Amino acid sequence: MANQSLALDLELFDVTKNGYAPAEQPKRKIQQPKLLRENQISGKRAYAEAKVSRAAAARACAFALMMLIVIGSLIYCRVVLTNRNIELNNAKTELAASQSEYTSLEMKYNSLLAPDKVEAYVRDELGMVKRENYQIRYFDISGKDGAQPIK
Are 138 and 150 in contact (CB under 8 A)? Predict the structure, then answer.
């Protein structure tokens, strides 16, 4: 890019050219401010005004304190509510994990108590066999002497 320069003709802004000259304005004298004195008040009136002023300040302080307590209570309640919600979410998560584990253990328990698995365990591990018809005996307990075998 070529170095371009811009020249301004400042004579165009000269207002004294062409016979125009701005009129000078007379200088104004600045006056010193006057101090106004308040009316003198009596001691009783000054005491009464101070008492009213102190009462107003006390009311303002009491109102500010009450607002501070209310705002503090609201913030505290919000913090407690947030903590309770966090505890509730943690408990729900723990409950879901416990229910899942319960379901898994229940399925494992049911699979171990299946009739065919129980029979295989009893036969293989404990060495038990099924009874035969000749091994069954029935007793009649309705007699006088007690139980007697039925033939």
Answer: yes
Question: Is 0.85 topped by the overall pTM?
Answer: no
Determine contact, residues 149/137, Cβ cutoff 8 Å. Answer: yes
Q: Taking the chain, what is the end-to-end CA distance rounded to the nearest angstrom? A: 129
Query: pLDDT of the chain along its 151 residues, tens only?
Result: 556 666 666 776 666 666 666 677 888 888 888 877 767 778 888 899 999 999 999 999 999 999 999 999 999 999 999 999 999 999 999 999 999 999 999 999 988 888 888 888 888 888 888 888 887 877 767 766 665 556 5
- How long a stretch of residues is the chain? 151
Q: How far is CA 45 from CA 50, 58, 127, in A?
A: 9, 20, 115
Contact 150, 139 (CB under 8 A): yes
How far is Cα 127 from Cα 42, in angstroms, rounded to an integer?
Answer: 119
Dist CA 112 CA 15 (whole Å): 112
State the DSSP H helix or E strand holding residue 103, giving kind and residue range, or none if neither.
helix 43-112
